[in-house]
Each structure stands twice: as C-alpha cells, then as structure tokens.
Specification:
single chain; SH3 type barrels; six-stranded antiparallel β-sheet; 2 helices; FeoA; Ferrous iron transport protein A
C-alpha cells in the first residue's frame, strides 16, 4: 500500500516508492539517502509531532513533517 511517510506507524518499516517534491527539497532528501527502493523505519515523532525521526540503514535522520509528507512509501514490503 503506497502512502505518505507521515501515515506510517511508529516502529514500522517501509520501502521508499518515490517523492512528490521538487528542486532543493527533493535533492536534500536524496542526499540524505531517501532514494526509491531503500528500506526505512519510522522511529518516532517529536513531542509536538514535528519533526519525525527515521532510520535509513544505520543512520538516523530527522526531517520536517512537510518534507516527510512528500516521501511516498510502500508499507506492504
């Protein structure tokens, strides 16, 4: 099931399907390792909900909700 990263439950794994972002934000996400086909795990939300922490391989990454909304994941993997 393909959906935005923000709809993934904490502790769940998913595979990145693609991005709905453009320009500098898209490039930043790709530079952080958020590329299609990569498995990620949603670790936690900040106390106020923004930002979110995700695990990409052995690396923890923190991104804003607005950026996470543009990352499309497949949680059925």
């Amino acid at each position: 099931m393909k959906r935005p990263l923000t709809e993934l439950n904490v502790g769940k794994n998913a595979v990145i399907y693609g991005h709905n972002s453009e320009g500098a934000i898209r490039q930043r996400l790709l530079d952080l390792g958020l590329m299609p086909g990569v498995e990620i795990k949603l670790v936690r939300h900040a106390p106020m909900g923004d930002p979110v922490e995700i695990k990409v391989g052995m690396t923890s990454i923190v991104i804003r909700i607005a950026e996470a909304e543009t990352v499309i994941v497949d949680a059925s993997a």
